Every structure is written in C-alpha cells, then in structure tokens.
Amino acid sequence: MNDASPGPDASAAIFDVVAIGSALVDVLTDASSEDLARFDMAKGSMTLVDLARAGTLYGAMGPAIEVSGGSAANTAVGVAELGGRVGYLGKVAADELGEIFLHDIAAAGVVLGRTSRVEPSPDPADDRATGRCLVYVTEDGERTMATHLGVASTFGPEDLDEEFVARGQVVYLEGYLWDLDPAKSALRRAMEVAHDADSLVALSLSDPFCVQRHQREFLELLHGDVDLLFANEDETTLLFSASSFDDALVAVEETGILAALTRGAAGSVVVAASGPVHIPADEVAHVADTTGAGDLFAAGFLYGLTHGKDPESCARLGGLCAAEVISHIGARPRADLRQLASGAGLL
Amino acid sequence: MNDASPGPDASAAIFDVVAIGSALVDVLTDASSEDLARFDMAKGSMTLVDLARAGTLYGAMGPAIEVSGGSAANTAVGVAELGGRVGYLGKVAADELGEIFLHDIAAAGVVLGRTSRVEPSPDPADDRATGRCLVYVTEDGERTMATHLGVASTFGPEDLDEEFVARGQVVYLEGYLWDLDPAKSALRRAMEVAHDADSLVALSLSDPFCVQRHQREFLELLHGDVDLLFANEDETTLLFSASSFDDALVAVEETGILAALTRGAAGSVVVAASGPVHIPADEVAHVADTTGAGDLFAAGFLYGLTHGKDPESCARLGGLCAAEVISHIGARPRADLRQLASGAGLL
Questions:
Q1: How many residue pairs from chains A and B have C-beta atoms closer than 8 A?
Q2: Å between A84 CA and nearest CA of chain B
Q3: What's the total number of domains in chain B?
Q4: How far is B223 from chain A (nearest CA, A)?
Q5: Whole-model pTM above 0.80?
Q6: Residue B5 placed within a domain
Q7: For B280-308, what is each residue's pLDDT tens digit?
Q8: Residue B60 within a domain
C-alpha cells in the first residue's frame, strides 16, 4: 500500500469539474435506532465530533468496514466514472487511512491537485490523522454520521492550488467546509478564482444542520457567488425559512440561479430559467445504504452539465447515479456508471 | 478510532474455541480475469508477496474497500456470532489497520489474548505494518489473494500465550502459518499445550498451494497431532496425492481422524468413525464473494461440535454460515448468524 498511484497527468488537463472537500474515510456499520438513541444521535444527520468522542463512539461500535468517502470526493469519483475529467483538492495525513483515500480516488481516475499530506502529530491529543466518518446504517438504509475531521479540519487558503482550481469548467464546493474558518476563507477565494476564469461555482449545502449553522451566509452566496446550488428538500426548506418545499421552490426561482434539488424517493426538481421541472426517482429494488445519494446525484448532474445536456437530462443522469450508490453499502459507485448511463440512453 | 475496546473479560473464561492465525485486513476490489492474468495471479489462489510487490499491486488496483479478515480470525468471529465463547491470538502493528482489526474482532465478541501490538519499524524497507490481503473478486464471486503479512509474519513461540491456549475446548490452527518457521514452531507448541489440556486440535489446510508446500508435514500431523481436519476438495485430493476426491476420501477414512471437507456448491463431506456423510450446500441466490467461505464453514462446524451436535449437524451449521458469507462482499458475517441458525432449526 505504499504506492498510491498519482493517476493521470495533473499538469495540463482542463477539467470538467474541480471538487474541493473534506477528505475522509468512511467507517460503516449496521446499527439500530436504539443504538442511535443511546448515543444521542439525530437520525439522518452529520455531527462533527472531537477525538475523544470519536474514540468513545468507535469503541462502542459494532464490526465495521472502511471505504473512502468525503462528500465532494464521492462526487468527483462519480464524474470520473462517467468519463468526465475531474480534479480534487483535499487534505489527508501521511498515514494508512490517508493512503487508502489517495489510492481510491486516483484509482477512479480523479486527478489529485498538489495534495497536502501532513505528518501525524506526535502529540496524541492533537489528532492530525486522516479524517474519518463513522456511518451508522439503519435497516431502512438511512445513514447517520459522526465525523472526526482530523487533518481535514486544517484545510485553508494555503492548501488552495489556485492554478488547479482555475482549470475547472465547474468548481464544486462542499458546504460542510463552511464550518471551519480557514476552509471557509479557502472556499471564498476559490469562488473568486473560478469566476476570474469564467468558470461556474457549484455549492452543495451538505446537511440540514449545516444550513442551520450558516443560513445567512449561504443565502448571501446565492447573490453572485454561487451559480449552481445542490440541496435536498430539508436543506432547501430550511435555507429559505419556508413553511413547505413548494414555498421554498418559489424562493429558489426568485434567486435566478440554477438549482438541482433532491427529494429522496420522490425524485428531484431542477429550477432553471424556464421554471421548475420535476423528475421522478429511478426505482431501486432494495435501498441498502443512502450514504452518498446526494453526492452521486451531483456527479451525474455535473457530468451532464459539462457535456451539453439540458437541466432535465442532467437531473436524470443524477438520479441514475444516486440509484446505483444507494443499492449497496458505501458512498462510491460499484457498477460501471458509464455503461449504466449509456444503457439508459443518457449519455 | 483510538479506543479499541478490549471486549469481554479475558482473564477467566473457558473458551469453546481458541483460534490462532494471521491477523490481516482485507483490501477488496472487483477484478476481471484479464486483471489477474496481467499480474500472473492464479485464480482462486493465495500468494504471499513482499512489500515491493504489494505496493506495485496496490498501485495498479482499482478502488477498494477495507474489511477485517484473516482466515482463523474470520472463523473466530463466526463462532462468536453464533453465540460461542472464542479466544483469538494473532499479531498486529500499532497502526491504523491494526486498530481496525482489533476493533472489529473485539466488537464481534471475540476475546483477544495477550495481543502483540508492535510499533512499526522506522526503516521503510522493514515492513512492520499490520498485514493486509489484497483480494480480487471476479464476476463469478471467486477470490484471488495476494497477502503481505507485515508484522503477522513475525508471530512466533514468544507470542503464544500458553495459558490462554489451554483454555480452549478446541484449538483451531490456520495452515497458512506453516509457511513461516517461527509460526510453525508456535503451532507445534500450541498442539502440545492443547493435548496436555485434553483439548482437541483442529487444523485448516487453508489453500491448495499451502498443501503443496507442506504436504509431507501435514500428512504426518494427521497421526496424533491433529484431531479434526478442515480442507476443501482440492486440498484434500492434493494432500493424499489422490487421483480423485473419492480416492482421497478413502485415504482420509484410513487416518481415523474427524474431517470436514468442503466442495463449494456441491456441499460438504464429513468423515467420522461411522464413515463419510455427504451434505448438500445451502442455496445461495447470488454468490457475491467467496472470500471466507471455508472459514465460516469451520465456524459453524466448530460451534456445533462444542455444543454437542453430531458431525452431520455440525456440517449443516457450517454450510449455513458459509452460505451467508458468500452472499455479500467481505469474509465476516453480516446477517445475524445465531438468528439464521435458529430459524433453520440448527441450534
């Protein structure tokens, strides 16, 4: 495991998408609703936890499996699996989980930017290990997450390779990063760099609690900073303090930006200049694990958008990718997405 | 991930089974037969590889997932999931994969013996990391493995907690360990300790190539050292240099020991004092990954044997456990084995 392949040449390509996010390895376990209650976890949410809490939770967790994750990284892998050219910026430690993360994302064909691999700290209280996300999958396929960011929490402007960012046709940003001031500064700078290069800026709202924490700033971003919004139903409704998703849709239209909004089994809604379009969800025989559903929806949408598809086709492609990833454990695609999309006549 | 729970109290219990094996984390990837050919890997085999080769293979490998593995460890977890009392002896490094291994086996209810967690070597050429097994799963569900043992290769007599071993009703040994002289010495000593304590010694032949390497010694072990033999069809035939499995069965009978022999989709054969009994395999709708099939067969058999079942019932329980583990990715059970076995009237 000491030869994390650097992947395709990073020096020259123009990317369909450059994604920036928290580089994490997911630790997946089966859990019951009682398990969640015992640890005061709100089902379906993502909570940031410190090292001590992560240790307590992991110690009490059942047997698990480890799969590379990280919201924007999942999206980047999805775009690459569809055949898109993707770059990724994130931050891992020079440890085994970091190696696993770098291996898996490069093996999927994603080009890694000037990657920050920092040495773990000798001080055990200062956890500079690769970030990990404890994912509890309940019987209904829903996931509840406790994330210890580790070294991903130190992502800042100095980690932003601006030349790399400027090469993306779309620069895709993970809302989760807004929780950390240095990362927030880096994202604000990435938006400037993208716009200076005439690129689009896409933002994923990531999580309802993330929206609650940053509602005012996220709303402000919709006026000039962000060109494409990804959010689910709850996040959209919370963002506009709306009493219903339908009311929120009206508010989204008023912003004038392109929005791709997911509604789980109810499909998605694309709000474009021509008004909202509702797209049904793909059928899934058995929902095994919803982790990555939103990330892979974004992947399909972004691939379509950067390949001349209309917004509705983009959403259909997003729905197909989301359906694949929730049919099995883990937030990275397992089937050949390009073949699936081609078979469905969506490429 | 810093709080690998020590699991149940290790100080007093009498165990149904004490298992000794190479502590490994499996790195699972989907692969084609062409991938295997490109790397000169014989389909279905396990090859030991050095650090450089492991690095080359991992660098060329597609995206993977990490799951705790190790043949005897898988068996130990299976016995524990059925409700048995199990102890395990193996060797990991004080690194992240080691933490993952220790967490998962303890979380399954296996009691860890005086575990050797050794610090990784500062010399990168001297790989004292936790061992890992690169597992290539082809479309037919067959697995082909390249194992870098890392620190597991240093298991020796000094790691054998004899008092712990003596507490097992059955002491279960992994044939793979025969490849390493210090481990072989430890296993020979474990056999003496077990017999001094009036325990049974069970040996798994692990792999056809392992049988080819150690045929003479394995045959000698059947005369007094081993009381219960686990092997698959190929291993059994090779062990006795037989021209067919039926001929090999005659040779097994002549040894007079108890043998539980697996035949994949053709089920299993138990050779006991009363002669061979053929048991059909459980039906599996879709074989996802055969990794761990033999290990989990042994788990079911050992649970039955230590709970007063006759050999045929033991083999049925083994078949049920094997069927569960091949229905999904990874060599550790995901369904509730105790519930499955109870539902099938086998407990």
A1: 93
A2: 17
A3: 1
A4: 38
A5: yes
A6: no
A7: 999 998 898 899 999 999 999 999 999 99
A8: no
